[in-house]
């Protein structure tokens, strides 16, 4: 399924008999922006258009979407858990200074996976490639004195 279209995700869940609440639909729509979100960031995004956002509801919906395989859960560098839409095989770049995470397209990923399956006679059911380093913003700074959380929030427009 192409998980980049919120209406397709919602239709698929309805077809499976799941109830679609407004909160669930809103969370799915935000996640279709194809970036990584912490629960706090999701709550912040929801508060832009909603007066009353229940954090427990966000957690419950995220856990449901993870259980259904629609959303993937990541914990890079033992920092905040982030969530992203399951968009298929791709890699991540994670900044070790500020915590910035972005998807990296690796066109050869599926070829490598197929070769490994053929070479060792297995079936790969999950692939993960995470690259760690220093992002361009951190490389251009003279020092790394800012706290990683403040820098991360500033970069995504939350401060």
Topology:
Elements: H1 6-15, H2 22-31, H3 39-47, H4 55-67, E1 71-75, E2 81-85, E3 91-95, E4 101-104, H5 109-120, E5 129-133, H6 136-140, H7 148-155
Parallel strand pairs: 3-5
Antiparallel strand pairs: 1-2, 3-4
Helix pairs in contact: 3-4
What would your notes on this structure say?
By secondary structure, this protein is of the alpha+beta class. It folds into 2 domains: 88 residues, Winged helix-like DNA-binding domain superfamily/Winged helix DNA-binding domain (Arc Repressor Mutant, subunit A), CATH 1.10.10.10; 71 residues, Ferric-uptake regulator, C-terminal dimerisarion domain (Dna Ligase, domain 1). A 3-stranded mixed sheet has the order 4-3-5, with no helix packed on it. A two-stranded antiparallel sheet has the order 1-2. The protein is flat, with a radius of gyration of 18 Å. The C terminus is likely disordered.
